[in-house]
Design goal:
By secondary structure, the protein is of the alpha+beta class. It has 11 helices and 10 strands.
Length: 306
């Protein structure tokens, strides 16, 4: 919304997918002598004398540093990696009350052709395939989905958003085949009935039933798919409650309130410890802004300490 208010038209797409951005950043970092550890789980952040001193890895290795910055979500960073004992009780109470209950599921698909939308008679890649497509029949339908989410129930008709990467980038799929990402909004992390292992396939059924109202051939195009509920997102990526933006992006958790009043400057109340990522200002989206802002703060503090 902020970008659009400034006159920016839509979003940009990186050729090769978002992973290409990560690879470019990796190369730039390594060219500067940065060491990157892959498939390396952090056990905890070591605090000594009210200062962050090091990071301990699951394999027992300890990495010392003058500054430690976490782009994990705020709850994981504060409650799990550091631990409650290093903060005041009132602060921990505020962190635990941050809102981050799931919110959406993702489905990744490979297709053996293009969806054909009923309103457009075309068999070639068109603007409708390059667009970020949203499907919701009415505001009332969105409100109903929201309230089912609040009561830990799967919406009967969740809002559906889709993007076909291969319509822009032919390198991500073979000729005449396509990749599509789908988001289903207002999908709860915890369920009133059953669990996600039992009910995960319901999300695929909902997507197909809603999408084929507008693109009747979608079902016959699907070759492979991967369903990621909020529970799966937490399990695979370590995001507390599987919220892709780390925290809900409501008015009380945006701008100077993100993640909490007093923390929008990326400094945690422990010397040498910082946070960045989607749970900090300006929030979710692949912008890099939070990391850039945090880096500027860290550089400023390191200069002062010298």
């Amino acid at each position: 919304m902020l970008a659009l208010s400034e006159g920016s038209a839509g979003y940009s797409y990186a050729i090769g997918g978002s992973g290409a951005v990560s690879k470019a950043l990796e190369k730039a970092a390594k060219d500067l002598g940065v060491k990157i550890f892959l498939n390396t789980e952090v056990e905890k952040i070591i605090i000594e004398n009210d200062r962050a001193r090091a990071v301990k890895l699951k394999d027992g290795k300890v990495l010392e540093a003058r500054a430690i910055v976490s782009n994990a979500d705020p709850k994981t960073t504060i409650l799990k990696l550091v631990g409650q004992d290093f903060f005041e009780k009132e602060f921990i109470h505020r962190v635990k009350n941050l809102k981050n209950e799931g919110g959406q599921a993702k489905i990744n698909l490979t297709l053996k052709g293009l969806p054909r939308f009923s309103c457009i008679d075309s068999t070639n890649i068109g603007e409708e395939h390059k667009a970020y497509v949203g499907m919701a029949e009415s505001v009332d339908e969105i409100v109903k989905a929201y309230f089912r989410w609040r009561f830990h129930e799967i919406p009967e008709r969740p809002p559906v958003y889709s993007f076909i990467q291969s319509a822009w980038d032919h390198s991500v799929a073979p000729p005449n085949h396509h990749t599509m990402s789908v988001l289903l909004r207002y999908v709860p992390y915890t369920l009133n009935k059953g669990n996600w292992n039992e009910r995960r396939d319901e999300l695929m059924q909902l997507f197909v039933s809603i999408y084929e109202e507008h693109a009747p051939n979608i079902k016959q195009l699907i070759e492979n798919y991967e369903i990621l509920s909020p529970w799966d997102l937490e399990r695979l990526f370590g995001i507390n409650s599987g919220h892709v933006s780390h925290l809900e992006q409501t008015l009380n958790q945006l701008l100077s309130f993100r993640p909490l009043v007093g923390l929008s400057n990326y400094r945690l109340p422990i010397s040498g410890l910082y946070i960045c990522g989607a749970g900090t200002h300006p929030g979710g989206g692949v912008t890099g802004a939070a990391g850039h802002n945090a880096a500027m703060i860290i550089i400023e503090d390191l200069k002062k300490s010298n």
